[in-house]
Design goal:
The complex is a heterodimer of chains A (187) and B (513). The longest helix of chain A is centred in the C-terminal third of the chain and has 34 residues, at 153-186. Helix content of chain A is 75%, strand content 0%. Chain A is elongated. Chain A contains eight helices and no strands. Chain A has two domains: 1-106, Rna Polymerase Sigma Factor, Chain: A, CATH 1.10.1740; 109-187, Winged helix-like DNA-binding domain superfamily/Winged helix DNA-binding domain (Arc Repressor Mutant, subunit A). With 513 residues, chain B is an alpha/beta fold. The radius of gyration of chain B is 26 Å and the shape is globular. Chain B folds into three domains: 21-107, no CATH class; 116-304, no CATH class; 373-469, no CATH class. The longest helix of chain B is centred in the last third of the chain and has 20 residues, at 357-376. A six-stranded mixed beta sheet of chain B has the order 3-2-1-4-5-6. Classes of the chains: A mainly alpha (187), B alpha/beta (513).
Chain lengths: 187, 513
């Protein structure tokens, strides 16, 4: 049903109804954000790229072929925007020796607001994190993720399962650690 | 997932999803701002919104609409949150007697539906005075400079008219068979006396809209030429009279060296259009958007009139492409006149041949790309032999090609001119996709053909020939057919025969509003 709504919104936007962009955003923003974040590993940059993705979508809506996958089309735009941001950032970093950004591979996530996501980011590989986020938050099906990431479906489901197992263990460990800290504090 | 139960999986997913509402940022309003979209809503929704904010007719279904319009829209908030927010507002509404105007003012929603977004889909975004507009204006100044030795005192006007059928405006399902989703567009050039010196059809629907009519526009006042489009467009079904409440839309965009053009002629346009719309054989209801921008400089100073004309014509033709593909004036000024003329002929042939809007965009993209290859003297990394192999592969796999035209396609793929279509038609980075293969071959052909001015001109003439051949038959350029090529034959509707049908007329939005 969402796909129908999305297709309809794409069609309206092609006709010039700018407000349809709001519907497209509502239906896809979570998927787009959780897709670009692992690529960029920088929350602020991911925010910018998400915005750029929808502006690019708006500017190029005529090149979207109705009836194909709007989600994949948006993700392709998002990926291109993210990669171009990455290139730009890498160039900037190489010239800025005083830059104290987080080292590659670590990016800030509100640990208090989103502890599970922060933990997932910490312990999962980029690919695993991407798959889990696309599935859990972006609400893509495994088949769609496989298609977009150019991976066999079996690999995606296997990586997903393995990522959740790691996450479960990490959650249990952090709980144990918390209990131990409480015990220590009591004593 | 042997050691992870369904419940555990669900628990983890639930945690991730609940955190997502705080984790995923809401950038919608920033995006709207960046796209210069006024979060306008249609009249019906607007009434609902006002009623809901006043607390009189609230139902939960209106929540997203309200949140969106008030700028507190958060796609990730749950319905319970939204209900609470609006409930609080409604309770407040009981002590507010009549807040309609205030609501309108606060949420920035116009009382009448704004069609400014529609302007964006045409060749010139007038809203906001962007650099592109400034360049276009100055380009037109140059075309209008009719003295080759002293191009300073340029004067004249460039007018674009486009029509959106009422059924297309009103449709929820724009692909339904009852909807005419084709928007013809024409351009006129007028002199300092506002008399038309030339005109052109900007797409295939524009040609079809004049079918069985042979209007003569030359030497007529521009407003008369524009109003002369009404009857043919109505008879051919692009201005409809099926439902009095669903209005057609006519956009008139004017660029003029005359800073008082709007003041001088807006009422003449309004009156001429009103006459045509209310003519007894028409009785058409339409919203007419009339925008005027003044031309300020002479960017192409020093060029001959012919050169300037071709450059402006090309520049405006490419304006409906996205900003990366649209050729700039600087780029166009670098080209030989012979090349520019050949390019202009090819573009015009494409605009008049049987192509859907998407097909026409792709056609222009290919032309734009070829021109850049010519300017940059680009060469391909592939060898002729490699490309021949890829071409064979594409032809062998002809059945998987999305724009299949029966048995003709294998033959057509032998024609280099056929590869002029750009990424707008289809695009893939997947090496197994026919789109990818097609793009590699296209790049090679375009780079090879643009190696010299002579070979490029020759190639452009082949492209023009191919486009011309599509005018009289099914169309020989690739077009996915999904949106369909306009086949004319639209029915205007017999609304005026009903007793309740009024006189028709235009709802004017312009300088003399």
């Amino acid at each position: 049903m969402d796909e129908e709504k999305l297709e309809k919104a794409m069609s309206s936007l092609q006709k010039g109804d700018g407000n349809a962009l709001g519907d497209i955003y509502t239906l896809t923003s979570r998927g787009v954000f959780t897709f670009v974040l692992p690529i960029l590993r920088d929350y602020q940059l991911a925010e910018d790229v998400m915005q750029e993705t929808y502006v690019t979508c708006y500017d190029n809506i005529k090149s979207y072929k109705l009836g194909t996958s709007a989600r994949n089309w948006l993700l392709t735009i998002a990926k291109n925007c993210a990669l171009s941001q990455l290139k730009k950032r890498n160039r900037e970093i190489s010239y800025d020796f005083d830059n104290d950004n987080h080292p590659d591979g670590v990016y800030y996530l509100g640990d208090v607001d989103s502890p599970t996501i922060a933990l997932a980011n910490k312990i999962l590989s980029e690919e695993e994190f991407n798959i889990v986020m696309m599935y859990a938050i972006g609400e893509y099906k495994h088949k769609e993720i496989a298609e977009f990431l150019h991976m066999p479906l079996g690999t995606v489901t296997w990586k997903y399962a393995s990522a959740l197992k790691k996450l479960k263990k990490a959650l249990e460990d952090s709980e144990t650690e918390y209990e131990r800290a409480r015990e220590l504090a009591k004593n | 997932m042997a050691d992870l139960t369904k419940e555990q999986e669900a628990k983890i997913l639930f945690s991730l999803r609940s955190e997502a509402s705080l984790f995923v940022p809401d950038k919608l309003l920033a995006i709207f701002k960046a796209c210069q979209i006024n979060p306008a809503i249609d009249e019906k929704s607007e009434k609902t919104l006002v009623a809901a904010l006043q607390g009189s007719k609230f139902t939960p279904n209106e929540l997203p609409l309200i949140e969106k319009a008030t700028g507190t829209f958060d796609p990730l908030r749950d319905n319970e949150n939204l209900t609470l927010t609006v409930k609080v507002r409604n309770e407040g509404g009981e002590i507010v007697p009549d807040i309609e105007d205030e609501v309108y003012r606060e949420i920035g929603v116009k009382k009448h539906f704004s069609f400014s977004t529609f302007l964006k889909s045409h060749w010139l975004p007038l809203v906001g005075g962007t650099a592109a507009v400034a360049l276009t204006l100055s380009a037109v100044a140059a075309i209008l400079a009719n003295s080759g030795t002293s191009p300073v005192a340029a004067s004249g006007t460039y007018i674009t008219v486009s029509v959106t059928p009422a059924s297309y405006m009103a449709a929820e399902d724009t692909l339904s068979g009852d909807v005419n989703n084709y928007e013809p567009s024409w351009s006129f050039l007028a002199n300092s006396h506002n008399l038309v010196s030339s005109y052109s059809c900007d797409n295939y629907s524009a040609t079809l809209a004049l079918k069985n009519f042979e209007p003569s526009f030359t030497s007529k006042p521009a407003y008369r030429a524009v109003s002369d489009l009404i009857t043919p467009a109505h008879v051919n079904g692009y201005l409809e009279t099926k439902d009095q409440t669903a209005k057609n839309v006519i956009n008139i965009t004017v660029l003029s060296t005359d800073s008082s053009y709007g003041v001088s002629y807006a009422s003449a346009y309004q009156s001429a259009l009103d006459d045509a719309l209310t003519e007894s054989s028409n009785k058409i209801y339409a919203v007419v958007n009339f925008s005027v921008a003044t031309i300020a400089s002479d960017y192409l100073k020093g060029l001959s009139e012919d050169e300037a004309s071709v450059i402006v014509s090309l520049y405006s033709s490419f304006q409906d492409l996205d900003s990366e593909c649209a050729l700039t004036l600087d780029e166009l000024k670098k080209g030989d006149f012979a090349v520019l003329s050949a390019l202009d002929s090819a573009v015009n042939a494409g605009e008049e041949t049987k192509l859907s809007d998407k097909g026409l965009i792709a056609f222009k993209e290919g032309l734009s790309e070829s021109y850049r290859f010519y300017l940059d003297n680009e060469t391909s990394a592939y060898t002729a032999q490699q490309i021949a192999g890829m071409r064979r592969e594409l032809i062998d796999d002809v059945a998987s090609i999305p724009w299949l035209y029966g048995g003709r396609l294998a033959d057509l793929l032998q024609n280099d001119a056929y590869f002029i279509m750009g990424d707008g038609l289809g695009f893939s980075q997947d090496k197994d996709s026919p789109w990818y293969l097609y793009a590699q071959i296209r790049d090679y052909i375009l780079k090879t053909k643009t190696a010299s001015a002579d070979s490029y001109i020759q190639y452009l003439s082949e492209v023009k020939k191919l486009a011309d051949s599509g005018k009289e038959s099914t169309g020989y350029l690739p077009d996915d057919g999904q949106e369909g090529i306009d086949n004319g034959g639209h029915i205007p509707g017999d609304g005026p025969n009903a007793n309740t049908w009024g006189d028709g007329g235009g709802e004017w939005h312009g300088p003399e509003d």
